[in-house]
Design brief:
With 298 residues, the chain is an alpha+beta fold. It is built from 7 helices and 9 strands. A hairpin with a 5-residue loop joins strand 1 and strand 2. Helix 3 runs antiparallel to helix 4, helix 4 runs antiparallel to helix 5 and helix 4 packs across helix 6. The termini are far apart. Keywords: Membrane, Transmembrane, Transmembrane helix. It holds the Pfam family Sec66.
């Protein structure tokens, strides 16, 4: 009798715990569902989802190469790796989207057409992955299992290079200086730099290093940094820049306004007399925290 009572108590406690766990799960599930229903961005994303994508053109390129050069043991593996690299972004998208799309579909929140596209796309990519692995195995025994790992490494390196290049473009700066002679002729000098802040040296372009400016001229300068939405422009201007024809080397500051572009420019005399000419051998730039919108006159 005592054993039966103990068993009944254990069963009752177990049932109560299971019911409580089910209740908690139901509450959490409903909260997650409510959160999804309240997420406007999620439904905007669903509206924009389209898994009816085509296979990459690299597949056709590989097939054409295989037909035209079936024995090329260097070009074919590289073409196959290129094909696998083109497959990976589609595979990543499907792997990333499937769990959430499946949950939405189970809740009746995902249109059947989108779910059907997703399933078809997954089947298509599974077939493509198998085809690539089969081709890799034909080209080199044992490569079938490693071809996508190698492609992932190459794609990761490519993405890192793209990020690095994008950062370099954001840091890059191009300075354009125009020296207008009293007679009206214009000499255009350009220089490049990176991460312009205070007294940052610029590299004068080869063709600009060969140019000469007169001892007296009007100077307009524009420094452009970054690219795209992050592009910024800084300006300064000197209505009359006069160089000392008796000095072989001299520094001049162009732009005096702390809110604008300021340049320290080193001039080297190359010719003498009334028509003394000067080359620019060094430029250092200082920019304010915010870009200027109009020319500043020193």
């Amino acid at each position: 009798m005592g054993a039966e009572l103990l068993l009944s108590v254990v069963l009752a406690l177990t049932t109560a715990l299971l019911c409580y766990a089910g209740y908690i799960f139901l509450i959490v599930d409903r909260r997650q569902e409510s959160s999804m229903l309240a997420d406007k961005d999620l439904f905007d994303a669903i509206d924009n989802k389209n898994y009816d994508f085509e296979l990459p053109e690299e597949i056709e390129e590989y097939e054409e190469l295989r037909e035209s050069q079936p024995g090329d043991k260097r070009a074919l593996p590289m073409a196959l790796l290129k094909r696998a690299m083109a497959d990976i972004p589609r595979i990543e998208q499907l792997e990333r989207d499937h769990p959430r799309m499946a949950r939405l579909f189970q809740k009746g929140l995902l249109p059947f057409g989108i779910w059907e596209q997703l399933v078809d796309a997954e089947a298509m990519m599974d077939t493509e992955v198998h085809s690539v692995q089969t081709e890799a195995e034909k080209l080199q025994k044992g490569w079938g299992q490693g071809v996508f790992s190698q492609a992932y490494q190459m794609l990761r390196q490519k993405r890192e290079d793209e990020v690095r290049n994008a950062q370099m473009q954001r840091d890059a700066a191009v300075l354009t200086m125009e020296f207008t002679k009293p007679s009206g002729g214009v000499v255009r000098v350009q220089a490049d730099g990176r991460k312009i802040t205070q007294q940052t040296p610029l590299g004068i372009r080869k063709e600009s290093a060969e140019m000469e400016v007169t001892f007296k001229s009007e100077v307009s300068c524009e420094l452009v940094t970054g690219t795209g939405d992050e592009e910024r422009s800084f300006y300064c201007k000197v209505s009359e820049l006069t160089l000392d024809a008796e000095q072989e080397k001299q520094w001049k500051q162009i732009g005096q306004d702390a809110a604008g572009l300021r340049l320290q420019v080193k001039f080297l005399r190359r010719s003498h007399g009334a028509k003394a000419g000067f080359a620019i051998t060094d430029i250092r730039a200082t920019v304010p925290a915010t870009p200027t919108t109009a020319m500043k006159t020193a």
